[in-house]
Design goal:
Elements: H1 6-16, H2 22-28, H3 31-48, H4 55-69, E1 81-85, E2 92-95, E3 99-103, H5 104-107, H6 113-128, H7 131-138, E4 142-146, H8 152-157, E5 170-172, E6 175-177, E7 186-190, H9 194-210, H10 217-232, H11 241-244, H12 249-261, H13 274-281, E8 285-286, E9 294-296, E10 299-302, E11 307-310, E12 315-319, E13 323-328, E14 340-348, H14 352-361, E15 366-367, E16 372-376, E17 379-388, E18 395-404, E19 407-416, H15 420-432, E20 446-455, H16 461-467, H17 474-481, E21 493-502
Parallel strand pairs: 1-3
Antiparallel strand pairs: 2-3, 4-7, 5-6, 8-20, 9-10, 10-11, 12-13, 13-14, 14-19, 15-17, 16-17, 17-18, 18-19, 20-21
Length: 512
């Protein structure tokens, strides 16, 4: 949470938003300044990214971190903190002052305590080597990372940007979206230089070895991340560890060679083996949370907000931070049509006509008549058709506002003027599908959780994936477990698998 006050806001931007000017470099040049910058940045991370609700796992990560921090030389004034963040992408990062974070997405890929200790040690090394100051002085560009997904992000503020200027559509994956709604929330992370990564590897592996862990764990962790990136690619909106910590063939070799030379303290690990390490990860969410809404085919379901919305068949649906947007699927080599429909939360309230007038008053839409009132199913609604020419591309659109559960939802369908006659019926039909959830909908509201299966003697990895009806395919399961795809288990052993599980909304807050 950003505190009020011009000076404090500047420090917060310095910490996480990449506004690294000379003033930020001066702040980071002293231990007190580092602590101040880091503390404000940590507030923003906790408020906008959030921590995984797993106290035992958090305590375990913190215990490893504390043991690593005790081996740091020359930075006695740094009070390190270690947290598991609610981030789907596999990543880890640190802020000045000793705030170290590892994502749930990265933890799901690790296979033993040595790997985790080396990842945390690497981030500790970025802090102790003062790489944040070097970024500030060199004005290193920062990279935005999507930190939240789903309409749940809109519930916090219950506000979206006014309709405003439609502008030209932007291609996002297979979907077409525009400037409507809020921009995705973002955390800004620096991409470390080759020299900084080498230094963090050396320092991180050294302190891991001094604390009793195998320094070769860093190489195994990097291999797991590389396999994951090869399988799934890198979403530019959900930055991968390898984007902010770029690997090189020389770095991979030097990491392995260095591990052979580092003396390792004779200290017992916190958990004794892989099975106990996996037990710490059991239940971890894998992929997007169902609490942010679920896309199934061309329909969208939101259990916490209790609604269903369907888009035309053949459309691609994108779940954003504060909106859900869909557009007709196009071939890779074809230009998008610019046709889209999007849902947002317009405001709290139960009068859709009043909210409609408020939105229209601050928009550039020229309506074709007054706001019409009516009902969609049993829900009060208001609607209007209009045109917008403010973005250079003439658009026609139809907008519905629907009251449900104390919120007014806005469903907008838009198309370039040249596409309007052929697309109007499809766009108008989207709002008509808005309704509360039914009992039959619940089967679609699922999410992936990490569970530990026991491989039978003589069983192959493909066989256990099939037997447990895993959400992961064989290639993903092999990468996540650090195994070849064709492995056959000689003995019974634990295997990480992602399984589909029903999502149950939390109970409503107490009125006390």
């Amino acid at each position: 949470m950003i505190r009020s006050g011009r000076g404090v806001r500047g420090v917060a931007l310095c910490a996480v938003a990449g506004a690294f000017a000379l003033g930020c470099g001066v702040l980071l040049a002293t231990p007190g300044g580092e602590a101040k910058v880091g503390a404000i940045g940590a507030e923003q991370v906790e408020a906008s990214v959030g921590f995984v609700d797993a106290p035992e796992l958090e305590a375990y990560v913190a215990e490893i971190g504390a043991r690593l921090a005790a081996e740091v030389d020359g930075r006695d004034g740094v009070a390190f903190e270690f947290h598991v963040v609610e981030m789907e992408a596999p990543n880890a990062f640190a802020l000045p002052g000793g705030y170290v974070y590892v994502s749930r997405g990265l933890l799901a890929l690790l296979n033993d305590e040595d790997e985790l200790a080396n990842v945390l040690g690497h981030e500790v090394a970025h802090v102790t080597s003062r790489h944040h100051l070097k970024h500030a002085l060199r004005q290193t560009p920062f990279i935005p990372v999507r930190i939240a997904a789903g309409l749940a992000g809109a519930v916090v503020s219950l506000a979206t940007a006014p309709l405003g200027r439609l502008g030209a559509p932007i291609r996002l994956g297979a979907a077409t979206v525009t400037g409507l709604g809020s921009a995705p929330g973002a955390l800004y992370l620096a991409s470390h230089s080759r020299g900084q990564e080498n230094e963090a590897d050396e320092v991180g592996q050294t302190i891991a070895a001094k604390a009793g862990w195998d320094p070769a764990g860093m190489a195994r962790a990097m291999e797991a991340l590389s396999r994951d990136a090869q399988l799934h690619g890198r979403d530019p909106n959900a930055l991968h560890f390898l984007d902010t910590h770029p690997p090189t063939p020389e770095r991979d070799r030097s990491t392995l060679e260095r591990a052979k030379t580092l003396p390792r303290a004779e200290r017992a690990p916190i958990v004794p083996d892989r099975a106990h390490f996996y037990a710490k990860l059991a239940g971890l969410l894998v992929g997007p949370p169902a609490s942010a809404g679920v896309i199934h085919g061309h329909a969208f379901y939101h259990a916490d907000l209790d609604f269903h919305l369907a888009f035309p068949k053949g459309w691609v649906v994108e779940n954003g931070v504060s909106n859900v947007t869909a557009s007709p699927e196009v071939a890779d080599d074809a230009e998008p049509s610019g046709v889209f429909a999007t849902l947002t939360i317009a405001s709290e309230g139960d009068d859709p006509a009043e909210i409609a007038r408020q939105v229209l008053d601050r928009s550039s839409i020229r309506t074709d008549g007054d706001v019409k009132t009516g009902k969609i199913g049993s829900l009060a609604s208001a609607s209007v058709e209009g045109r917008d020419r403010s973005g250079g591309v003439p658009y026609h659109l139809i907008v519905h506002w629907i009251a449900h559960g104390g919120q007014v939802y806005q469903v907008l369908g838009a198309a370039p003027a040249s596409e309007w006659d052929t697309q109007r019926a499809a766009l108008a039909s989207v709002a008509e599908t808005f309704r509360p959830l039914t009992a039959k909908d619940q089967k679609h509201i699922v999410e992936k959780r990490l569970r530990i299966a026991s491989a039978r003697e003589g069983e192959s990895l493909p066989a256990i994936v099939e037997r447990r009806a895993a959400a992961w395919n064989v290639a993903t399961a092999a990468a996540a477990n650090g195994l070849p795809e064709d492995v056959t288990f000689r003995l019974r052993q634990p295997v990480k698998l992602a399984l589909w599980e029903r999502y149950t909304p939390p109970p409503p807050p107490s009125e006390e």
